[in-house]
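lol forgot to send this yesterday, sorry. struct tokens for the thing we talked abt
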């Protein structure tokens, strides 16, 4: 299949191009599009056959449900059987934006979207391109991240094409995503809302509205039955095995250099993912990718997947990554790094 390419302005996208892409969506085709978090792989969310094509293109397990993207907050009531007060308060504060609420679904939401669950995940993105595309399509758009399952999520159209060119009808390129990690997913069907995936709307921002939330134990890497099916799979992983260093800065520096030197001595080709603060102490033979200052979690989030993907074309045997503090977007960054490491963590 030939993948059509549309280049649009991120703020004032070309209306005719978006109308063409929206028509493809209505016809049951797959269209990758930018959001403020990561690029999504869209399909008509009410068309089970179209939704199944998403799973094929990504190689995604069928029991991992998808998020429905809407263009207007009023559309939530058309998908949810009930909108709990917690969900109402959250969407009032943080929509449009990187927040996904899990609510009870209505009967017409296909099983292909929910993985057979009785709940559905819904998000109203803030990206003007995403919103206009969904509005023109006139349907809820089911969209996971537009990567091959298990790979780092795409934050540019080039990342999308690297994984999915020839497998999807079109991609809309509006340049790099602002936030760089996926939306926050919060289950609003539990008595106290449960954080399933940390993201652009931070823990602190959720607490500010709700007062109290539960955090799913699977987020800490605990061996429990995950509530969000997406949490049980290895994710975001670069080609070579990655080990995450999780300690306060001084200990991190020591652990990182010790492990790197051990690997070099064993004759391995080594990669390192580090903060600007540690970049200069990494031995020069190590292939080093810098994610920014460890004091700026938002910048680290924005660079994270590009840094993970930068090792795709490098023949390294092992990669060591330096962790950051879990404040603000740091919680989402560490969640993704732990998964990318398959929970290989040194403390
Ligand atoms: O930022 C984002 O959310 C991006 C952009 C494209 O919007 N999308 C995204 O989708 O990250 P995906 O499919 O990669 O992640 C969706 C997550 C998965 O962890 C999935 O298990 C969870 O949401 N999820 C979806 N429906 C759910 C449900 N009914 N109950 C619990 N978790 C659900
Ligand atoms: Mg994903």
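and heres what i got for the seq, position by position
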């Amino acid at each position: 299949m030939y993948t059509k390419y549309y280049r649009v302005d991120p703020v004032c996208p070309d209306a005719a191009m978006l109308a063409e892409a929206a028509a493809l969506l209505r016809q049951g085709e797959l269209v990758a599009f930018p959001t403020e978090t990561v690029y999504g792989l869209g399909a008509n969310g009410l068309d089970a056959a179209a939704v199944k094509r998403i799973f094929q293109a990504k190689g995604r397990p069928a029991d991992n449900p998808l998020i429905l993207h809407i263009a207007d907050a009023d559309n939530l009531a058309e998908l949810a059987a009930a909108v709990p007060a917690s969900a109402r308060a959250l969407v009032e504060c943080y929509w449009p934006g990187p927040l996904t609420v899990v609510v009870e679904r209505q009967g017409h939401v296909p099983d292909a979207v929910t993985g057979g669950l009785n709940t559905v995940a819904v998000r109203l993105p803030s990206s003007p391109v995403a919103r206009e595309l969904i509005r023109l399509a006139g349907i809820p758009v089911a969209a996971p991240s537009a990567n091959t399952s298990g790979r780092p999520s795409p934050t540019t159209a080039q990342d999308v094409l690297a994984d999915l060119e020839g497998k999807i009808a079109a991609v809309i390129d509006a340049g790099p995503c602002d936030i760089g990690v996926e939306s926050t997913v919060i289950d609003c069907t539990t008595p106290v809302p449960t954080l399933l995936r940390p993201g652009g709307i931070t823990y602190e921002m959720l607490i500010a509205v709700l007062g109290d939330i539960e955090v799913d134990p699977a987020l800490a890497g605990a061996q429990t039955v995950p509530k969000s099916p997406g949490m049980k799979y290895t994710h975001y992983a670069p080609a070579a095995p990655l080990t995450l260093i999780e300690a306060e800065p001084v200990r991190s520096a020591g652990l990182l250099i010790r492990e790197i030197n051990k690997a070099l001595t064993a004759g391995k080709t080594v990669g390192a993912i580090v903060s600007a603060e540690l970049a200069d102490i990494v031995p020069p033979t190590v292939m080093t990718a810098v994610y920014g200052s460890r004091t700026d979690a938002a910048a680290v989030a924005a660079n994270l997947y590009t840094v993970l993907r930068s090792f795709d074309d490098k023949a390294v045997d092992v990669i060591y990554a330096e962790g950051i503090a879990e404040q603000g977007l740091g919680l989402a960054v560490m969640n993704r790094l732990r998964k990318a490491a398959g929970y290989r963590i040194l403390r």
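The mean pLDDT is 95. anyway ping me if u want another try
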